[in-house]
Amino acid sequence: MNYRDLEIYKLAFRLAIEVHNLTLKLPKFELYEEGSQIRRSSKSVGANIVEGYGKRTYKNDFLRSLTISHAECDETIYHLDILFATKSLNDKEKYEYLHSEYIKLSKMIYNFSQSVLKKHISGK
Fold it and tell me: How many domains are contained in the chain?
């Protein structure tokens, strides 16, 4: 098994690609402001999962990376909210879809972190 087999990685990767493509359609003034911010945070979600998985032998390092991934996921939700509230992203259906997918991913990362933590505490 490797990180590519993790459901949280698969979803994070797919969503990062969708966000990247979405930002290319934002108004020009947002390409380097919110567009850049949301691209970086969305890509960081998966990157931190990968980094943590590479350090999985060291549970605390793994958990730290998952915590960062979770925070980046929540940051991405914030940037989606800003883009929608400012009408830079005016496709309500796309916004609601991405918002719900990132909420789902946030919960998945949290649950995965709790599973890693329990295994660490119990020694299993």
Answer: 1
Helices (H), the chain: 7-23, 28-31, 34-54, 59-85, 92-122
For residue 15, what is the domain's CATH number?
A: 1.20.1440.60
Q: In the predicted model, what is the mean pLDDT of residues 100-116? A: 97
Report residue 105 as tokens: 């991913």
Distance from chain centroid for Cα 124: 28
Question: What amino acid occupies position 84?
Answer: F
Count CA within 13 A, CB hemisphere, residue 112: 23
The boundaries of the domain holding residue 13 are 3-122
User: Model confidence at 120, in pLDDT bands (50, 70, 90)?
Assistant: low
Structure confidence by residue, pLDDT tens digits, 53-96: 999 999 999 999 999 999 999 999 999 999 999 999 999 999 99
